[in-house]
Design a protein that fits this description.
mainly alpha
């Protein structure tokens, strides 16, 4: 991956991850408005944004694995991607705890399965992997399941 092999890219990714870590609570608090009430769209947007951002853990994990295969255990790129993976998990954990307060657990965890769709998208767009028919059918079934849970919640 040429985008991840240059030093400026490493620095940019690091800054974006660190920036997200410091402001995530403030953003959620601002979007909550008075009394902690959020509009439905905003709540779901933040939920899915958090899930999407967590899906980058798999990307960083694969990049760390590639760095290990190419350069060995003690190369700085390996440690960098492991650090990004752990930082992403920490940011996700904080944001998930803030967002989960706004949903019933069944709805939040049903939506969390969308992680698999994001992971497949990253596999295609970042790592140039191919999707099989079974992958596409699985994502469609997952999406239909999430829609069923959403419909049941709104009734």
């Amino acid at each position: 991956l040429p985008i991840f092999k240059s030093s400026p890219s490493f620095i940019l990714i690091f800054l974006l991850m660190g920036y997200r870590f410091y402001i995530i609570s403030d953003v959620i608090r601002i979007l909550c408005g008075k009394g902690g009430k959020m509009k439905k769209f905003t709540r779901y947007f933040l939920l899915h944004l958090n899930i999407m951002l967590f899906s980058f853990t798999g990307v960083f994990s694969k990049l760390a694995s590639n760095a290990y295969k190419e350069h060995g255990l003690f190369h700085p790129s390996f440690f960098f991607f492991v650090f990004l993976m752990l930082l992403n998990c920490a940011v996700y954990a904080v944001a998930w705890q803030k967002i989960i307060k706004r949903f019933s657990l069944s709805v939040a965890y049903a939506n969390r399965s969308v992680y698999l769709i994001w992971s497949q998208l990253w596999a295609v767009f970042i790592f140039h992997e191919n999707l099989s028919v079974q992958n596409i059918i699985g994502m469609a079934v997952l999406f239909i399941g999430v829609l069923i849970v959403q419909t049941a919640e709104s009734q």
